[in-house]
């Protein structure tokens, strides 16, 4: 394995010599087409050879990043900007208020409890005490309905695997309960126990790569060992589906959600007031979404896109709950219904209009009361209890950190409750929304945030971000990490690509399977628009995306390598022929299709798969691939194989590096110390390779 070595080139830049990655003769045949996979050995993430390659690659990357002149200054500025109090939205349980708070640089946020909104907060649960390095994250809190117990879920090193513990709510004393190998569901209480979803213990050494199959729902009674937990539901006929359960506040109903075989889910319900009642299946088409919002009396309020691509609210009777007996309460509108809550006997509905939130209050009979005039273009989230009028909401935008407000429904007013103080002046920046035509003429929205007074001189650095998949909308949000880039003259561009849900299910479907190229065309179109409108030029554009967004970056940099100056594919899905063979990759088939579906689907995937479209002798953008050793969502093999191939194929002096984090996963729950280091690396790489300077 070679370390980093610099050689002079004709261009005057330095050439990096990368670690050796031996090629093997592995070949797969798809519908008669032979496809080589020379770095298949890198899929074995626990082998000595892979570990040695990872170590050598990190040495090369760290050496390169340490030589960026302003990397340390950037880290100091990011640390300063991140050192502010962040509060979660308060919520009330059994007469007390709970909220999360981070003093600024704490690795994990701490949960506090208050007797009233004006009383002194007390620490309720501090996840920073669960590990020395902050790599144990709190992923969920669930209170028993009588308030006696609190179950909390943790993740170790960023993994999707979850462990559940229980404490006495009043004293904070840990009880002996400990659940392992939970994933994607729970805990949800009934009486003195709770439901949760779990898998059988995985094969030792393959905890983070093997396919997850046979998801099950269990009921755990307090004080008993996990081995005694009652199996509530499993469906061996469909081993590659997810199952989760949830109860209502009064423990009237137990809902079961089945997903993983389409773009939506199936819904089941059990009436807990009827002894011996079994699950009733309400729906049978998993290409639509069906989610219970609340049960009030005998009525189930439901959120669905069945018969309404932009979503609607329906009502069912718990005694006659099947889909054909549901009644429409609030019909589909021109805007996309994106969230629904029952607070104080009212429905609080959030709609997306051109990718930003608008909020309305309705009576439970479906009549609209009023619109809540939000502070600006941005994103809102509500918190409250169905039986109490007290309502909180969190609001954020590109330049407004998450601020919490108390809403008064009677006079449709709100007052600021808590607002963080960040060490920058929001008034120095402006956000505009533009619309541009994609390749097929579809109008695509994009938010641009930059410093006031920006000149359209064709030379501004751009951080171009997108996702474009799984019906996930990209709404305005704040990140302190972007501020130094903006302060130094950069433009942050967020593109609302097809594949998301910004305009409903039709917008989502337009970016799936045999139409996935639309997503890449939209992103490429965004870059071309910014160049045409003289915001920037190709060498000044950095494209960034994570997970499905990492696939986006990988596809665009292989299709149009000359269009971008920098590419940052983060935890990306890079091998589109084999993605479904790892952990929960099979769950993405509803968006992607698989190489086993048909010859046509194989050829389409092969045509854009980032790994398979790297070409020897091509000059690729300066690239920093990022992944982590405990990513069991998108396994690091994707990034490993892509980086090894890119380093072999790249012709030119642009660096093509990979940054592999340790004791970290797909991103959720990452400790602040690791976040700051990672963002300093990414932004310094971007700014350095876009030719930006650091002037105090």
Structure explained in plain terms:
With 696 residues, this protein is of the alpha+beta class. The chain has three domains: 6-80 and 425-689, Alpha/Beta hydrolase fold, catalytic domain (Rossmann fold, 3-Layer(aba) Sandwich), CATH 3.40.50.1820; 248-332, no CATH class; 338-421. It is built from ten helices and 41 strands. Helix 2 (71-82) crosses helix 10 (672-689) and helix 5 (517-532) crosses helix 6. It is globular. The relative contact order is 0.11.
How many helical stretches?
A: 10
What is the molecular shape?
A: globular
The helicity comes to 10-25%
For the record, what CATH class of the largest domain applies? Alpha Beta
Q: How large a portion of the residues is in β-strands, by DSSP E? A: 25-35%
Poorly predicted tracts of residues: 1-12
How many extended strands?
A: 41
In spatial order, strands of the major sheet run 34-35-37-36-38-39-40-41
N/C terminus separation: 40 Å
Largest sheet: 8 strands, mixed
Give the name of the CATH superfamily of the largest domain.
Answer: Alpha/Beta hydrolase fold, catalytic domain
Mind telling me which CATH architecture of the largest domain this is? 3-Layer(aba) Sandwich
Domain count, please report it.
3
As a whole number of angstroms, the C-alpha radius of gyration is: 25 Å
């Amino acid at each position: 394995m070679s370390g980093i070595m610099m050689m002079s080139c004709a261009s005057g830049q330095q050439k990096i010599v990368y670690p050796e990655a031996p090629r093997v003769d592995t070949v797969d045949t798809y519908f008669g087409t032979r496809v080589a996979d020379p770095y298949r050995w890198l899929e074995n993430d626990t082998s000595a050879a892979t570990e040695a390659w990872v170590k050598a690659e990190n040495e090369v990357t760290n050496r390169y990043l340490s030589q960026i002149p302003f990397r340390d200054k950037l880290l100091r500025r990011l640390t300063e900007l991140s050192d502010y109090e962040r509060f979660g939205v308060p919520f009330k349980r059994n007469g007390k208020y709970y909220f999360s708070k981070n003093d600024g640089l704490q690795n994990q946020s701490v949960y506090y409890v208050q007797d009233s909104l004006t009383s002194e907060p007390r620490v309720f649960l501090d996840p920073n005490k669960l590990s020395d390095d902050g790599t144990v994250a709190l992923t969920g809190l669930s209170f028993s309905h009588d308030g006696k117990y609190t179950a909390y879920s943790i993740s170790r090193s960023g993994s999707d695997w979850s462990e559940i513990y229980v404490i006495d709510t009043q004293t904070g004393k840990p009880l002996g309960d400990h659940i392992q190998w939970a994933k994607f569901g729970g805990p949800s209480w009934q009486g003195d126990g709770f439901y949760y979803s779990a898998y059988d213990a995985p094969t030792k050494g393959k905890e983070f790569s093997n396919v997850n199959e046979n998801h099950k729902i269990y009921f755990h009674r307090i004080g008993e060992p996990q081995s005694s937990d009652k199996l509530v539901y499993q469906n061996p006929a469909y081993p590659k589906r997810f199952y989760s359960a949830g109860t209502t506040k009064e423990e009237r109903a137990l809902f079961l959600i089945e997903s993983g075989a389409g773009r939506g889910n199936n819904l089941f319900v059990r009436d807990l007031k009827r002894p011996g009642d079994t699950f009733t299946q309400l729906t049978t088409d998993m290409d639509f979404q069906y989610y219970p919002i609340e049960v009030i009396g005998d009525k189930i309020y439901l959120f669905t896109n069945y018969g309404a691509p932009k979503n609607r609210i329906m009502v069912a009777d718990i005694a006659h709950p099947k889909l054909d007996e549901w009644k429409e309460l609030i019909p589909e509108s021109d805007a996309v219904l994106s969230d629904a809550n029952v607070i104080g006997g009212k429905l609080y509905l959030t709609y997306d209009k051109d990718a930003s939130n608008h909020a309305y209050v309705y009576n439970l009979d479906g009549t609209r009361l009023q619109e809540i005039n939000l502070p600006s273009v941005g994103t809102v989230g509500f918190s409250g209890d169905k039986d109490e009028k007290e309502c909180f909401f969190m609001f954020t935008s590109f330049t407004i950190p998450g601020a919490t407000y108390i809403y008064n429904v009677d006079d449709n007013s709100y007052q600021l409750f808590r607002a963080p103080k960040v060490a920058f002046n929001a008034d120095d920046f402006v956000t505009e929304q533009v619309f541009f035509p994609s390749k097929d003429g579809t109008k695509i929205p994009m938010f641009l945030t930059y410093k006031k007074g920006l000149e359209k001189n064709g030379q501004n650095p751009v951080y171009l971000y997108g996702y474009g998949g799984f019906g996930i909308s990209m709404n305005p949000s704040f990140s302190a990490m972007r501020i130094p880039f903006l302060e130094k003259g950069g433009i942050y561009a967020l593109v609302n690509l097809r594949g998301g849900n910004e305009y409903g299910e039709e917008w989502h479907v337009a970016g799936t399977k045999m139409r996935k190229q639309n997503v890449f065309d939209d992103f490429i179109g965004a870059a071309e628009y910014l160049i045409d409108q003289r915001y920037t030029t190709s060498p000044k554009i950095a494209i960034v995306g994570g997970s499905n967004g990492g696939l986006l970056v990988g596809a665009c940099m292989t299709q149009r390598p000359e269009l971008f100056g920098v590419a940052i594919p983060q935890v990306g899905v890079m091998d589109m022929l084999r993605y479904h063979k790892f952990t929960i990759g099979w769950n993405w088939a509803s968006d992607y299709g698989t190489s086993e579906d048909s010859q046509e689907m194989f050829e389409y995937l092969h045509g854009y798969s980032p790994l398979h479209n790297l070409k020897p002798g091509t000059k690729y953008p300066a690239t920093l691939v990022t992944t982590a050793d405990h990513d069991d969502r998108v396994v690091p093999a994707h990034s490993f194989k892509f980086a090894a191939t890119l380093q072999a194929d790249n012709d030119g002096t642009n660096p093509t590096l990979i940054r592999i984090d340790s004791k970290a996963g797909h991103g959720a729950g990452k400790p602040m110390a690791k976040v700051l280091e990672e963002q300093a690396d990414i932004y310094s790489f971007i700014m350095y390779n876009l030719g930006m300077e650091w002037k105090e």
